[in-house]
Design brief:
By secondary structure, this protein is of the alpha/beta class. It has 8 helices and 7 strands. The termini are far apart.
C-alpha cells in the first residue's frame, strides 16, 4: 500500500487562487504552497499580494487583476500561466457582499456581485480548463456559503450568487469530470475575514453565530486547511460536484 500521505502531496502542481490578498483566499494560497504547489495569487491590491509572495517565497507569484472584468479573462489566464505554467488547480476564493437589503438593491450592486461571485468563477474556469484537459487532471474549487441554502438579511444578491455556485459546481462536474477535472465547492461558516468584519466587530452577534453551530464556536483560519487540501489533491479523486460545508455544523441544525 502506498503511503496515504502522498495523496495530499501537491509538488509538481500549479495552483491559481483568486482573492488571495486576504482572508480565506490568502489562507488557501499558503496551505497549497505548504503542500508543495507553486501558487499564483490573483487580487486587486498589489501591496497585499507582495506580502503574500514574501510570506510564501520562491514558489509564489502574483497577478494584479479585477476578475469581474470579463474582457481580461484570456489575458489573465496567460498572465497566471507565465511563470510556472498552466494551473492544475483553480480556487475561486474572491467574493463580494454589498449587504444591500431587498428594498435597497441597486442594479450596480447586483451586477457587480454577480460578476465577481458567479460569472468570474465560470469564465475563468472555462479559460483554464483546456490545459487541464490536456493533462487529464485538474481541480476546481468554488467558494459557496451558508447562504447557498440559507437566507440572511441583506443578502439577496450575495445569496443568489452563492446558490448559483452550488448549481455551477454540479454543472462543471458534469461537463468536465470525464476529462479528469473535478469540480467541488467549500461552504465556509463564519470565519474572521474582511468580508465578515461587521459580524466579528459585534461580540454579541459573533457569540450568537457560534451558538448556532454544533461545535459551539466560529471558524478559525486553520479550519479551512484540511478541507481545501483534500479537494485540491489526489485524495479527492472520486469526489466531484459536491459542496462541502465547513461551518462547524451550522447548517446541520
Amino acid at each position: 500500500m502506498d503511503d496515504p500521505r502522498a495523496l495530499f502531496d501537491l509538488r509538481g502542481r500549479v495552483a491559481c487562487v483568486t482573492g488571495a490578498s486576504s482572508g480565506l483566499g490568502r489562507q488557501v494560497a499558503k496551505v497549497l504552497a505548504a503542500a508543495g504547489a507553486q501558487v499564483v495569487g490573483v487580487a486587486r491590491r498589489p501591496e497585499a499580494l507582495v506580502g503574500l509572495i514574501e510570506e510564501i517565497g520562491e514558489n509564489a507569484d502574483a497577478v494584479v487583476a479585477d476578475i469581474s472584468d470579463r474582457s481580461r479573462v484570456d489575458g489573465l489566464t496567460q498572465e497566471v500561466s507565465a511563470k510556472f505554467g498552466a494551473p492544475d488547480i483553480l480556487v475561486h476564493a474572491a467574493g463580494l457582499n454589498t449587504r444591500e437589503t431587498a428594498d435597497d438593491v441597486t442594479p450596480e450592486g447586483w451586477d457587480q456581485t454577480l460578476a465577481v461571485n458567479l460569472s468570474a468563477p465560470f469564465f475563468l474556469s472555462q479559460s483554464m480548463v483546456p490545459e487541464m484537459k490536456k493533462k487529464g487532471w485538474g481541480r476546481i474549487v468554488n467558494f459557496a456559503s451558508l447562504q447557498t441554502t440559507r437566507a440572511f438579511p441583506g443578502g439577496v444578491a450575495y445569496g443568489a450568487t452563492k446558490a448559483g455556485i452550488g448549481q455551477l459546481t454540479r454543472a462543471m462536474a458534469e461537463a468536465w469530470s470525464p476529462f479528469g477535472i473535478t469540480a467541488n465547492a467549500i461552504g465556509p461558516g463564519f470565519f474572521p475575514t474582511e468580508l465578515t468584519r461587521a459580524v466579528f466587530d459585534d461580540p454579541a452577534r459573533a457569540e450568537r453565530n457560534a451558538a448556532q453551530t454544533c461545535i459551539r464556536r466560529n471558524g478559525e483560519m486553520a479550519d479551512i486547511n484540511g478541507p481545501i487540501l483534500f479537494l485540491c489533491s489526489r485524495a479527492s479523486d472520486y469526489v466531484t460536484g459536491q459542496v462541502l460545508m465547513v461551518d462547524g455544523g451550522f447548517t446541520a441544525k
